[in-house]
Amino acid sequence: xxxALGVCGGIAVYKAAEIVRLLxxxxxxxxxVMTDSAQQFVRPLTxxxxxxxxxxxxxxxxxxxxxxxxxxxxxxxxxxxxxDALVVAPATADVLAKFAQGIANDFLTTLYLATTAPVxxxxxxxxxxxxxxxxxxxxETLRRRGVKIVEPESGYLACGMTGPGRLAENHAxxxxxxxxxxxxxxxxxxxxxxxxxxxxEKVDPVRYLSxxxxxxxxxxxxxxxxxxxxxxxxxxxxxxxxxxxxxxLTRVESAKEMLDAVVGLLPESSIVIKAAAVADYTVRNxxxxxxxxxxxxxxxxxxxxxxxxxxxxxxxxxxxxxxxxAETENVIENARKKLESKSLDAIVVNDVSREGVGxxxxxxxxxxxxxxxxxxxxxxxxxxxxxxxxxxxxxxKKKRHRVPSxx
Length: 407
Fold this sequence. Notes:
The chain has 14 helices and 19 strands. The chain has 407 residues and is an alpha/beta fold. The protein has two domains: 2-182, Flavin prenyltransferase-like (Rossmann fold, 3-Layer(aba) Sandwich), CATH 3.40.50.1950; 191-401, Rossmann fold (3-Layer(aba) Sandwich). Strand 9 (201-204) and strand 10 (207-209) form a beta hairpin.
């Protein structure tokens, strides 16, 4: 196994030396790629001595100072093809922005675009830089592309401020790196049907009823399932998110349209994960013309299709069905009732009354319930939640296929 370790400029650079050692302790070859600014803090010779590998310091140069030649000119391609993961620690705001925008003006950013290996980044920066909307948007872009973010810790920073921005502990970074290189294709051969986003129920030609779902959770599940080898059928309500390129996407608007799409795809799927926030009610007989404002107005509502119930009714014995539940009170009790009443294999529940997680957020905190287990997932990114949900799915598949021992 071989990892390229990208090292960017910042006071946390010295911690990268320990990351090299920890990776080598686990039998990983490490090739260090340093940005120009990183070399102002630690000399390349340090990493060369630790790794026993040439340290790459530029597109046309290396730490050896050799003259540029054809080999050095295309080295970013050969390195990109030879590595099992790209890990960047510390990752600066500048490099995150370049990765997100596809800018390739040095070896590290060019390597990122050229490699198809998993990518792990561990940011470290000033708290204001970490919380800036531009940085948050860049992080969200990278997450949607499947980049694993090892979030920084809170504490006293070198700039004298206190808050999030301190590089994560080395053991946490290394654990994520090992997960990236050792990630098995444990969903290979499976077809996963995922619903995502909100639905819109027509009130009149210009108005609709909907909810705050952004679709991030379902899209994270789709990307994670693809990376674990599955074929993914993604049925999405209206959202601004860019779907994973390899997902087979069906766009819908209403609960009825989502039901029809799901029923049509159900025979092809072995696993169904219903993460969409589907309307409970739809408008009865919406008018063909826009409703004019004229004082109070009452809408006649009727129950929208129960997609999850229809999935369970039509399921094959071999299919796994995972539901989601958004609750504001008696969270676990209500979720367990839904798990049992719908005959689900598992349900993922979150408390949507909490600020900053769940609907329309990059983060979530959930509990995964099965008939026999309760797995809490503390607040983390939706990408991490998706991985935990899929871990549960894999565990359920193994249990179902386990042959009873002979007495």
